[in-house]
Amino acid sequence: MKKQSGRREFLMTVSQVLGASALAGSVSTQALAGHSTTPGLPAVVPEGFTVGDVMNLILKTIPGAPFPKTVDTLKSGSADQKVTGIVTTMFATIEVINKAVATGANFIIAHEPTFYNHLDETNWLENDAVYQYKSALLKKHNIAVWRFHDYIHSHQPDGVRMGVMTALGWEKYYDDKNPHVFTLPGLSLKNIAATAKQKLGIPTVRIIGDLNQSCRRILLLPGASGGRSHIQGIENEKPDLLIIGELSEWETAEYIRDARLKGDTISLLVLGHAVSEEPGLEWLVTFLQPKVPGIKVQHVPSGNPFLFV
């Protein structure tokens, strides 16, 4: 996925929005690295971080963590291995793994599953050639993969939403009391769709609605929160426009169609799952880098798997 000019201010604007929330959970960089605070004395070289160290640094910033039940577990590698570099991404695809290897990174933090199902269960894939290839690639290069889904959404504020909001340039419309809803100046659905395509690098989007409709109250639900969540959000918030990542077409899309046939002025903008949450994993770079001095943290987008024709 290509980079956009709207993301060039990403690092600074996200830090401003997060404010004290991020600072409250952070661990002293000097303490972690063992740097001397006495003027004139040389800094002590840090011994480095294990995968488990990095995970624990992040978990200390998440309310209620570690969770007794979560999908955010290691999918490969060991918590004891030393980290040589960190890559954040939406999906730990074979391409992302190879890019991590090329940059010397051995720890991938991915938002979504590695092995094609929510729980990353692999017993049903043991004889599958694609699974075998990917698993062998991870083992060959000693890559640790940690899913970071439940925890990033549980961060206060939600790291994915903060990343998407910043990429879209909607920081000034953010309301921490109702973070799902953005009240914009009256913009046409066509204008909002064009902005999303430009800022998020999306070649096409899917829309139900009138392109000339003025949309002021926006309900933003990136990712795949499900039809019931979408519909309940519409009922509670009464938005002019619902923006989502992905949907089951027989759920949310049909509800929007019936709502419009009933006479409601509501529209739907579908971005695509990966591109709707990818900015949240860019947010993770700015959040994590100060906590792991001496370790390079970089974002490698997994992008959209679809070809649009």
From TrEMBL:
Extent of the signal sequence: 1-33
Protein family: Belongs to the GTP cyclohydrolase I type 2/NIF3 family.
Origin species: Chryseolinea lacunae
Pfam families to which the protein is assigned, alphabetical: DUF34_NIF3
Keywords recorded for this protein, A-Z: Metal-binding, Signal
PROSITE patterns xref list: TAT (PS51318)
SUPFAM superfamilies for this protein: NIF3 (NGG1p interacting factor 3)-like (SSF102705)
Name of this protein: Nif3-like dinuclear metal center hexameric protein
Source taxonomy: Bacteria, Pseudomonadati, Bacteroidota, Cytophagia, Cytophagales
